[in-house]
Amino acid sequence: MNKRCTLLTRLSIRARSTGDEENSSSTTLDTSRYTFFFHEFSLSFQNLIARVSPGKKWLENCRAYSVPASSKVVRDERFATLDDQDIKHFSGIVGSKGLVVDKDELEVANTDWMRKFKGSAQLLLRPQSSNQVAEILKYSSSRRIAVVPQGGNTGLVGGSVPVFDEVIVNLGAMNSIISFDEVSGILICEAGCILETLDKFLADKGFMFPLDLGAKGSCQIGGNVSTNAGGLRLIRYGSLHGNILGLEVVLSDGTILDMLSSLRKDNTGYDLKQLFIAGAEGTLGVVTKVAVLTPQKLPSVNVGFLACTDYTSCQKMLLEARKHLGEVLSAFEFIDSFALDMVLKHSGDRHPLPDAKEKFYLLIETTGSNQSHDKEKLDNFVETVLTQGLVVDGTIAQDNTQISNFWHIREAWFLQLPPLGKAGAVYKYDLSIPIKDLYNLVEILRERLATVVAYGHLGDGNLHLNISAPDYDEKASFFFQLLAKIEPFVYEWTAAHKGSVSAEHGLGFMKAHAIHYSRSPETVELMRKMKAMLDPNGILNPYKVIA
Ligand code: FAD
Ligand code: MLT
Ligand code: ZN
């Protein structure tokens, strides 16, 4: 049976249903205090999932390899070192329940999700109100104590953990939903609300959060806003720049900026809240409240898993999907066969297309209000692309279980990476590249390196590149040799193709040095001036973004 017949058979037999450094005196980096951590790649899938689900122990079984940091970052000696008086003062602000000095808790909060970056904060604060955040920052500014705003600590660029001994200010205790207007769909909540909690709250009311990502069980809306998280359905719902209507932000001097508008239209002067949505990553202020426009949750969901022989077909598929699925298209994700095989091997998930031997796979989702109409649309679309030869094999989920299974495979694309590097490290890149050029980078890198795992949000021109070292032997020289093959090449190539070195994860600590690849010197200079104006003592998330 040829491929076309295979697909047609599948389609016919399966009924679908619902589906700043100036003047600074400094000391050199103490690598025992700031260390690059490599994963313990033999962590089980469950342990990895536990990181995404709060409340589970994940640090157990974790063996960390440390090598000297390649970065030349030094502690800024203008920052004060905490003393007893400071701790007493902070305790007076947040009370004993908001002040954490316990070693184990600090260990978790000091370590990033990738277990690649680790700080040595001696104090973690959990404010319970905007006023407490304001008091913390006011005092920290006056004493020049550096702080790191932290949400769910799921960031992938080392932005959410201290580089040295900065105080961690975690927003998790500020997790109240303030109001929800069922007519306008506008939700107002505190910054520490967990994304999944908000989505469940909204689902009960027939609405949904316009952002979805694999870390939803842990990430907080304040962290999402501060990184302008993109996620899986940006193609449909757009970025947070459009959906966030208002913010409350606390500046480094303790000023509470009330920009918590819940108006769809508000052109009164500069739209300052946008400064704190993406780009800022906790370097300009602490987001304490958020107003977001939420869409209706639509009942009809259909998901297809389709195989294409070449990248050109994937691009044409995007065009056709936009043409035929238009308003119902809600996700367009891609993975290549190398990555998919690896994910399936480690996750135990079943290949949705067991007979397919194609190089590219697409997960396409539609979401609408009319099941028969949406089903017919997807059927017609698949029939068209099949006839055009753009797709050679495919299947459409026939029930909610299958829909979840397909999405589970997608969300595992990243979670299943570590087993690949059982003997090594994973270098993670998150790039925006014009769609026509996007996969060229993967092929070029594959000529330089053994293992390159590629997937991403093709609909958004967002490539996730994950490079692992098959023979990592814990020697620093290997680390540097491998890294030299990747950087700065990946950044230079991306810049040469008019891409961005940070599509959705931000710059954090990992890519602060790379900002120049995607922003002009004049732009970076203006950013520095804005940072100096909003945070004159530079206490907010130092060494990050434009460090
Ligand atoms: P944190 O990691 O705690 O912090 C991130 C940054 O924001 C830091 O610089 C921190 O200082 C700052 N920050 C946090 N809270 C505040 C606040 N209240 N005020 C000011 N600054 C603050 N990202 C995507 O864009 N798309 C994806 O599809 C995606 N998928 C992911 C899947 C997995 C499994 C994982 C682990 C991560 C994924 N990420 C993705 C990355 C990450 O989840 C997002 O960047 C998320 O928005 C971070 O939220 P958080 O609450 O964990 O923030
Ligand atoms: C994703 O799309 O899964 C996330 O951005 C995490 C990753 O880079 O894999
Ligand atoms: Zn992503």
Automatic annotation (TrEMBL):
The keyword Glycoprotein does not apply. It comes from the Eukaryota. It holds the Pfam family FAD_binding_4. InterPro entries: FAD-bd_oxidored_4_C (IPR004113), FAD-bd_PCMH (IPR016166), FAD-bd_PCMH-like_sf (IPR036318), FAD-bd_PCMH_sub1 (IPR016167), FAD-bd_PCMH_sub2 (IPR016169), FAD-linked_Oxase-like_C (IPR016164), FAD-oxidored/transferase_4 (IPR051264), Oxid_FAD_bind_N (IPR006094). Its cofactor is FAD. The keyword Nucleus does not apply. GO terms for cellular component: mitochondrion. Its EC number is 1.1.99.39. It is an enzyme of class 1 (oxidoreductase). Belongs to the FAD-binding oxidoreductase/transferase type 4 family. This is D-2-hydroxyglutarate dehydrogenase.
